[in-house]
Design a protein that fits this description.
The complex is a heterodimer of chains A (283) and B (139). Chain A is an alpha+beta fold and 283 residues long. Chain A is 32% helix and 25% strand. Chain A contains ten helices and 14 strands. In chain A, a hairpin with a 6-residue loop joins strand 13 (203-209) and strand 14 (216-217). In chain A, helix 4 runs antiparallel to helix 7. The radius of gyration of chain A is 19 Å and the shape is globular. By secondary structure, chain B is of the alpha+beta class. In chain B, strand 3 (51-54) and strand 4 form a beta hairpin. Chain B is elongated. The chains are: A alpha+beta (283), B alpha+beta (139). The A-B interface holds A 1, 3-6, 8, 29, 31-33, 36-37, 39-41, 46, 49, 51, 53, 76, 95-99, 101-102, 180, 182-183 and B 1-2, 20-22, 24, 43-45, 48, 51, 57-60, 62-65, 67-68, 94, 98, 111-113, 115-117.
């Protein structure tokens, strides 16, 4: 064992101080469901570790018609809220009950591609990350937060304190394709939000998880829907654009070949559900 | 490395342990506190055999630093009276918490709740039957 210190700060200021002092050398644990398996396996050998369970960063707060989600809010708590049904669904379909009791919303932003279901749903909702660091607090649009495989725009001395979901218009749907129905990593995850108001699509968000190195919005698929009725041709165009634009990774869950085909299929199914009016409304 | 003393409630008693930083609750329960029902399975959060309750809710003790449960109430299968098998202790802790939340569960709900606990012997059906029977007996 190489760990020389494990600290549980009791405030954001204290956590920030530790990050400022030790930055890149400090392993940050929220729920521990991503990092602890690596520690247990010896893949990650940290010397200094900071746990966030007592930092006072958990909790849900209704704000301006939207929702402010404390970074260490558990997936169990997110699944239990009803202000944003899309997030409850995404959380409920992530991992197992005991994992959801530990895993956090902030932590999901740092998950492996096949585990980022909640992050994918947050992308469809235009979520904004609240981060604090030595020079104060800043906000980062989630759309620009992910920079590569397990890398983000967060500086080594910054801490995600909350995820803010603005009041969202339109209808949403969440579709996760896995190898089984419960407690499954994703082959592909689709979160979509469309504003139609009974006419053509006027606003579209299509976010994909497990379809690349990180959760991503598919601009080409969104554009393919704008100004068009949500019917066969538009849906087919959007699904085709999504399939063509992704560079999925192969892992133990699915091959690159299979994932690419399931991207198109899943987008088509998700949009078909929205066209049929099946999914939950968030307006 | 600076070891520290962590105090928490185990079943009905207060316990104190001396641990190296980031020691898991699983390791402490099994090696220091004789809770042999807490299995050392995958250590990845994937098999559920180390499931214990913290303040009544199921968690995976292999992923939880023991420092995080200071002052909290930890329940292992020893508190329910007996132990056996490899996957069963984790299954039973999960089931105990599940029946607290869902005293009249549907079969689908039982299957869903058990999805994080791996069994390589039974095919799950007898376990689901047993939880359904326990729910029935509890009514």
């Amino acid at each position: 064992v190489t760990v020389t210190s494990y600290v549980l700060p009791t405030s954001v200021a204290e956590a920030g101080g530790l990050l400022a002092a030790h930055g890149p050398d400090l392993l940050v644990l929220a729920g521990g469901t991503v990092a602890m398996p690596l520690v247990n396996e010896g893949t990650t050998r940290p010397t200094r570790v900071m746990g966030l369970r007592r930092a006072g960063l958990d909790g849900l707060e209704a704000r301006d018609g939207g929702l402010r989600i404390g970074a260490t809010t558990t997936l169990t708590a997110l699944a239990a809220q009803d202000a944003v049904p899309l997030l409850a669904t995404a959380a409920r379909q992530t991992a197992s009950w005991a994992v959801r009791n530990m895993a956090t919303v902030g932590g999901n932003l740092f998950s492996t591609p096949r585990g980022g279901d909640v992050a994918t749903a947050l992308l469809a909702l235009d979520a904004v990350i609240e981060a604090t660091g030595p020079s104060g607090t800043r906000t980062i649009a989630l759309d620009g937060f992910f920079t590569g495989l397990m890398t983000t725009a967060l500086a080594p001395d910054e801490l995600v304190t909350a995820i803010v979901v603005p009041a969202a218009r339109g209808s949403t749907t969440f579709l996760k394709l896995g190898r089984r129905t419960a407690n499954t990593p994703a082959v592909v995850t689709v979160a979509a939000r469309l504003v139609m108001d009974g006419g053509p699509v006027s606003e579209a968000r299509i976010a994909l998880g497990a379809a690349g190195p990180h959760p991503v919005r598919v601009a080409a698929a969104e554009t393919a829907l704008l100004g068009r009725a949500l019917e066969g041709p538009a849906i087919k165009a959007a699904a085709g654009a999504a399939e063509a634009g992704m560079e999925p990774r192969a892992d133990a869950v699915a091959s690159e070949w299979y994932r690419r085909r399931m991207v198109g299929l899943s987008v088509r199914r998700a949009l078909g559900e929205l066209a049929a009016g099946v999914p939950g409304r968030i307006a | 490395m600076a070891s520290s003393v962590v105090a928490f409630e185990l079943g009905e008693r207060e316990v104190e342990v001396l641990v190296a930083p980031l020691t898991t609750l699983q390791a402490v329960l099994r090696t220091q506190l004789g809770q042999m029902s807490v299995k050392d399975g995958c250590r990845q959060g994937g098999c559920g055999s180390c499931t214990v309750l913290v303040d009544g809710e199921p968690v995976l003790s292999c992923l939880l630093p023991v420092e995080d449960v200071a002052g909290r109430r930890v329940t292992t299968l020893e508190a329910l009276g007996y132990q056996c098998g490899y996957c069963t202790p984790g299954m039973e802790m999960l089931a105990a918490a599940f029946l607290e939340h869902h005293p009249e569960p549907g079969r689908d709900e039982i299957v869903d709740a058990l999805s994080g606990n791996v069994c390589r012997c039974t095919g799950y059906e007898p376990i689901v039957d047993a939880i359904a029977a326990a729910a029935e007996a509890g009514r």
